[in-house]
Design brief:
The protein is mostly beta strands. 4% of the residues lie in helices and 27% in strands. Strand 7 and strand 8 form a beta hairpin. It is globular, with a radius of gyration of 20 Å. It starts with 27 loop residues before the first strand and ends in a 6-residue tail after the last strand.
Length: 273
């Protein structure tokens, strides 16, 4: 069956979330974007500055040294799970299942919101629609209930990093381009599936509009007839989404060859919904 754009997938905004959204959505967690490969204070968006005093000429002209900066993570609200989550918990890096689109390497770094230290062995669970706005596992939009494309789980490594091979998502009516994400703590992996533990964060990741516009002109995205909602007009994005904007880097001179996206999620690993 040919995929068609999804026209009935508008996710509720704050105040009208579905009943299956975790109660923990009111708990605050941190999500800070990572601008470079180094997990440092500046890259984490930590509110800290380093003051270097000039070489003093005399006690009278010596600059007064700045107080040592306080290292503190910036907290942002979690976001709605949305109506398309499936607890498949399949552990796999490549989640494309042959879906066409701009190749996307997604690197998620998970840190402890209290200390900013990387959290290894955290399960990062993501899901998103295809280029035409269709989610796997649902009849609506041209998919079928037994499909699993663009869904998967990866455990973070010793540096707190989980990496996925996927495609740039498309869009559907009422929503900006986004990737859903959960983190799970305390579970185990057996037979290729993550079991047990608890959800410690639920959120969404977003894409810069400059890239969205360029991707929308490429195949198969240009076949998506749904009206594309800009980040600034998405009610869910406006409620904290700017803090989860992905940092993108194009692979080579041809956008169609792919992009790499990075983000840091700061969580309370002991929190539960």
């Amino acid at each position: 069956m040919t995929d068609t754009p999804h026209h009935n997938a508008t996710e509720p905004q704050r105040g009208s979330e579905p009943s299956d959204v975790p109660a923990g959505a009111t708990r605050r967690s941190v999500i800070a974007t990572l601008g470079g490969a180094t997990l440092g204070v500046a890259a984490l968006g930590v509110a800290a500055t380093q003051a270097t005093a000039a070489e003093p000429r005399s006690a009278a002209t010596r600059p007064r040294p700045a107080a040592p900066p306080a290292v503190a993570c910036v907290l942002t609200p979690e976001q709605t799970e949305g109506p398309y989550y499936l607890d498949l918990e399949t552990v796999r890096k490549n989640i494309t299942e042959g879906k066409a689109g701009v190749p996307l390497t997604l690197r998620v770094t998970v840190v402890d919101a209290a200390t900013c230290a990387p959290l290894p062995q955290t399960a990062v669970d993501i899901w998103h629609c295809d280029a035409l706005g269709v989610y796997s596992g649902y009849v609506a939009g041209g998919s079928t209930p037994d499909t699993t494309f663009l869904r998967g789980v990866q455990l973070t490594d010793s540096a707190g990093v989980a990496e996925f091979t996927t495609i740039y998502p498309g869009w559907y009516v009422g929503r900006a381009l986004h990737i859903h994400v959960k983190t799970h703590e305390g579970g185990t992996v057996s037979s290729g599936t993550y079991h047990g533990g608890h959800v410690s964060h639920t959120g969404q990741l977003y894409f810069p509009e400059a890239y969205n516009t360029r991707v929308a002109a490429l195949s198969p995205y240009r076949n998506n007839t749904a009206t594309r909602t800009l980040n600034a007009r998405d009610g869910i994005y406006r409620n904290g989404g700017s803090s989860t904007l992905l940092t993108l880097a194009q692979t080579g001179s041809d956008l169609g060859k792919g992009v790499t996206a990075t983000v840091v999620l700061g969580i309370d690993p002991a929190a539960t919904p």
